[in-house]
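Message: I would love a firmer grasp of how sequence relates to backbone shape in proteins. Thank you; the sequence and its tokens follow:
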Amino acid sequence: MLETLIWLGEHFIGMFAKGGETFVGLVTGIVPTLVVLLTGVNALIALIGPERVDKVGEWAARPGLQYYPVRYILLPFLSVFFLTNPMAYTMGRFLPERYKPAFYDSAVSYVHPPLGIFPHINPGELFVWLGIATGIQNLGLPLVDLAIRYLLVGLVVIFIRGIVTEWITALLIARQAQDSLSGTEVKA
């Protein structure tokens, strides 16, 4: 019984010691990189001008199929890259109400795919990418190839999600309008 308690005590403390080692590795490794990257992105926004960044959102709000890639690929990518998570979702303010759910769906779905190339986007969730990266490196496979593929597949996925969510939103808006015309109450 005493040996079991000693074993539990040692391993319990050992778990925290291992966590401390991981923390020190992050502080001396990725954290300085993230701080410099965030500083660089904020400097780039200041050089470009926030009003120019806002103009992209207004451009994406235009109706028509030709603006789907702008609304559900370009705008979410730029928002996530420049504003990072969770501020990226604020770019939806330039879109009409009917596009906001689809933009949000696209933006929120894109905060993980670019982490391998742009870790500043969502540093709070970096552990997901680092776990995948560790496994890939242990297999001796190239990490940059995976990071680029993950980023590109993410762009395809957010485009599809944006279109589908816009379509669903349009159906719900039409149903709500029809229900309010007929005098029936909309049920959730």
